[in-house]
Structures are given as C-alpha cells and as structure tokens.
Amino acid sequence: MTDRPRQIGDLTEILADAKAAGAVWRVAEEPRQLDANVIHLPAGDRIASHQGPDLDVLIHVLAGGGRLDSGEQSLELTPGALVWLPRGSQRAVVAGPDGLTYFSVHPKRPPLGITRPS
Questions:
Q1: How confident is the model over 16-49, as pLDDT tens digits?
Q2: pTM, whole model, 2 decimals?
Q3: Which domains does the chain have, with CATH numbers?
C-alpha cells in the first residue's frame, strides 16, 4: 500500500485505444474509496434506460457526443460537458454519429455481503 499520489493512466493513450464498446479503462488500485471508468460507445450504441445505483455519479464527456435521456428531460452530451447523475435517477445514454467517450466517477460500492439466517 502506498499513500502518495501517482499516475495510474494516460488519457491520450486511453482515447487512442478506445474502439471497443464498454469500459476501456478503469481504476484498479487498492485500497480505494472511489470507482472511475472511461466508457466508450461506438456510433449509435446505447445504454438502455435504467435506474441508477444508490450513489451519485459524475460523468465528463471526453470525445464524440450523444444524448442522455432522463424521463422527460434530454441533455446533449458534448466534449467537456460535466453531468451529475443523482443516485437513483432514471437514465439512458445514446451515442451520436461520432461515438461517445466519457469518464465516470462515483464512490466505490461496498462488497456484497452474505448473511446467514438467524
């Protein structure tokens, strides 16, 4: 374990390699109190509408563009946009014609616990 800052990735390299759909990078260092990912969606791909987890999520659009649909609201996603997704909010993400790549960060989820009935 180290308690000093260190570089854990290079966004230029991550974006150059972002071709497959899904998480193209994630923070893996332990111990940590947050999760962070770079997500890439090719042109026209989508993340279906769902209710978010019981934690806040912040996304930063890195490249491409698209749309975030949340109930009756639709937000345009363009490079540089910072979007807060409150815990439990309904959301869907649709990539535009140039695809969509964004950085996502949120508190780390606690591990699932197995309990025995008493």
A1: 887 788 899 999 888 888 999 999 999 999 999 9
A2: 0.85
A3: 25-107 (2.60.120.10)
The DSSP result for the chain, as a single string, is ---S------HHHHHHT--SSEEEEE---SS-SEEEEEEEE-TT-EEEEEE--SS-EEEEEEEEEEEEEETTEEEEE-TT-EEEE-TT-EEEEEEEEEEEEEEEEEEPPPPP------
99-111 confidence digits (pLDDT tens): 999 999 998 876 6
Residues 6+ apart with CB under 8 A from 79: 61, 62, 63, 64, 65
